[in-house]
Amino acid sequence: MKTTPPENPATGLARAIDSLPGIGPKRAATLAGMGVSTLRDLLFYFPRDYRDRRRIRPIALVKPGEYVTIEAEVLESKARHLRKRMALTEVSLRDASGEMKAIWFGPAYLARQFRPGMRGFFHGFAEDQQGPVLKNPEHEMLSGDEEDRIHTGRIVPLYRLTEGVSQRLLRKWIHLALEQLDGTLEETLPETLRRREGFPAIEDAVRAVHYPRSLADAEAAKRRFVYEELLGMQAGIVQKRRARQDQLDGNVHVVNGPFLGELGGSLPFALTGAQKRAVADILEDMAAPRPMLRLVQGDVGCGKTLVAMMAAAAAADGGFQTAVLAPTEILAEQHARTFRERLEPLGLTVELLTRSTVSPAEARKRVASSEAVVVVGTHAIIQEKVKFHRLGLVIIDEQHRFGVMQRATLTGKGHKPDILHMTATPIPRTLAITLYGGMDITTIDELPPGRTPVKTSYVTQAKVPGLYQYIREQAGKGFQTYFVCPLVDESELSDLTAVTRHFEELSSGPFKGLRTALLHGRMSGAEKDEIMRLLKRREIDVLFSTTVIEVGIDVPTATTMVIEDSGQFGLTQLHQLRGRVGRGAEQSYCFLLGKPKTPDAKQRIEVMCATTDGFVIAEEDLNLRGPGELVGVRQAGLQDLQFADLLRDARLIDQARRDAESILEDDPHLKKREHRPLARASERFQRLNA
Fold first, then answer.
1. Which terminal Cβ of the chain has fewer Cβ within 10 Å, N or C?
2. 3-state helix, strand, coil in the chain (%, to 5)
């Protein structure tokens, strides 16, 4: 969040970064790549960590098993070559109390960085190798000049770096910029909130972040900027939501018409309670003059598509068309089949429009004339030449896969159409409020009756032959299997399983005689469509695929999912893949293969084996990967958060939302002088989420 107003670029903190000594055009370009172009950018480039160099451990007191910082002189440095370009670098160190060694595994040139007589700091883990040895320690050498006072005898900041910029250089430049602070930073938090929370003033906070008197001071200062960033974000969300609620010029739909009634009466099963609540929420929105903006989120197989069809039927009752946007051709084709099965018997024509459509011009004519009441497609329906006669409802499936402009282009094809987003990727509550705070949110938290949870297990290499035999037996009973691999073709840069090679080897080996097929993203739309038709007609026993089948594939007779190199996939993706089986009444299984290479990969496999609850999995995914990697975050501009962490700062998110609502009750347009910085932050967030 940019916290201060524009300044004259020739003066103050708006000056270019190359106004500091030692920064020429080349370094200025490097810093610009780090997001640092002005003195203000430099001051708000915060440390990633700190080292307390007030308390240096004498070598004689270092014990194995400790993380320590020592200040020592280099006695000797040597390298022992291991393999290829790798070497073991060993450096002998000495201080007034004794001697010890530090070792690094890496390129051989590391040894040349250390020359006898050099002094520096070494921070790392002391292992026991016939006495304590520092293994792969961080190191920073001293220059022996006045500048060393910035780097020693105090709590020292550590920054994220790039090639050509060292910790010493960055500290030096930030120190010079701090010396120019003298009431030049505008206070950006409302004074009442700052005093209530006990936050330091902005200049004190900036100084404390970079050179704190204690680690507690650094945390207090950082907390101020975290809160301020979240406050601006929440103000943007609240303002955007209120602006939408004030719009009363949307379409008022018929929500008790014949198409909707006939669709409900034609269903051979009853809706779940969660589906009924979702339909009620949607119909209430559609009957109101305020344009709908609702997200329906639910686990795989919870029945979101049927809920969307009922919304389309309601739109048709008022003479409106519906556009259904899907991220892949396979998913679009499946949606088209499902919509046709339910809606065309009612007299509603469903058009499929993708890049593989055989006669796209004819399809576009049917859309423009309103002959096509429901139009299902991929990015092809966003094209300028696609014109709707009367678009009243837009349904966007897996909405996080589309950019802001793509979604806006589609909705712009109608007069303020109602918008229904759907996602099969459950989002934890705290993040959902932030990520989708401008939308109304409905959660379908119930699976249709008769769905048996998929049993998941990890299969060791020794048990793989038995798994292959099980798959042959399942094929003999008429059930189908998916084999998912992370790569299409083999790569010299990776030892991961390639689906093309795996398909060839298993088809001519353990699965010889079975009907096997191959599916991946490089195939043409027609080829993929033919494979899916064969799969649906049960003419394929084993389908080898990449993650192209991750969403939307619904084949009730597919009962086995095998995921090769499972530790390479994220938790949410593994759960989505597992959701391709268990679509019928038969017990289904998901088998995870491949030895996990990291502790996180091992934990993902353990979570998958322990639960089938998508919301639990989303929480675990958030804990393991952080919010920056969770689907949807990047599309919402939340990756631009400079200080806040949506997982760590959950309590502050709630506090910031309450404070933003309170401020906007008193000052709806943030016109008061003390609220102007907050207004700028709110506007920036809304621009990112247009």
1. C
2. 45, 20, 40
Distance CA 203, CA 196 (A): 18
Q: Which uninterrupted H or E stretch holds 230?
A: helix 215-245
Q: For residue 192, report the phi and psi dihedrals to the nearest 5 degrees.
A: -65, -40
563 pLDDT exceeds 80? yes
Report which residue type is found at 12: G
Tell me the pLDDT tens digit for each residue of 278-290. Answer: 999 999 999 999 9
Claim: this prediction has a pTM higher than 0.90: no
Task: Report d(CA 304, CA 274) in Å as an integer.
Answer: 10
Contact 235, 663 (CB under 8 A): yes
Q: Which residue's entry shows tokens 């050179």?
A: 211
Collapsing DSSP to helix, strand or coil, 273 comes out as helix
User: In the predicted model, what is the mean pLDDT of residues 515-529?
Assistant: 86
CA distance 499 to 182: 62
- Any idea of the CA torsion for 305, 309, 315, 321, to the nearest 10 degrees? 80
3-class DSSP state of 391 = strand
- Cβ–Cβ contacts within 10 Å for residue 342, how many? 20
pLDDT at 4: 44
Confidence of residue 513 (pLDDT cuts 50, 70, 90): very high
What φ, ψ does residue 138 adopt, rounded to 5°? Answer: -65, 145
Burial class of residue 90 in the structure, from the number of CB atoms within 10 Å of its CB (0-12 exposed, 13-18 middle, 19+ buried): middle
Which strands make up the sheet holding 558-563, listed edge to edge? 455-458, 589-592, 558-563, 480-484, 542-545, 516-519
CA distance 94 to 75: 7
Structure tokens at 419: 């918008």
Query: Of 396, 542, 406, which is closest to residue 467 (Cα–Cα)?
Result: 542
Residue 97: predicted pLDDT: 95
Contact in structure between 256 and 380 (CB atoms under 8 Å): no
Q: How far is CA 326 from the centre of its chain?
A: 19
Nearest to 26 by CA among 202, 169, 237: 169
What tokens were used for 275?
């589906």
Q: Fill in the amino acid letter for 338.
A: T
Structure tokens at 555: 């084949």
Backbone angles phi, psi at 545, to 5 degrees: -150, 165
E strands present in 288-390: 293-298, 321-325, 350-353, 374-377
Distance of CA 585 to CAs 151, 245, 411, 591, 611, Å? 66, 43, 38, 19, 19
Tokens (6 digits) for 197: 């929370």
Flag whether pLDDT at 594 surpasses 70.
yes
Other C-beta atoms closer than 10 Å to the C-beta of 351 total: 23
**What's the distance, Cα to Cα, between the start and end of the chain in Å?**
17
Report residue 609 as tokens.
Answer: 């084996």
Q: Which residues pair with 124 in a beta bridge?
A: 68
Q: What is the rounded CA–CA span in Å between residue 110 and residue 304?
A: 57
CA-based radius of gyration for the chain: 30
Query: What region does 198 belong to: left with phi over 0, alpha with psi -120 to 50, or beta?
Result: left
At residue 438, φ and ψ (nearest 5 deg) are -85, -5
Which residues lie across from 498 on neighbouring strands?
487
- The pLDDT score that the predictor gives to residue 98 is 95
Query: What DSSP state is assigned to residue 57?
Result: P
* Side-chain half-sphere exposure of 227, counting CA atoms within 13 A: 25
Secondary structure class of 100 (helix, strand, coil): strand
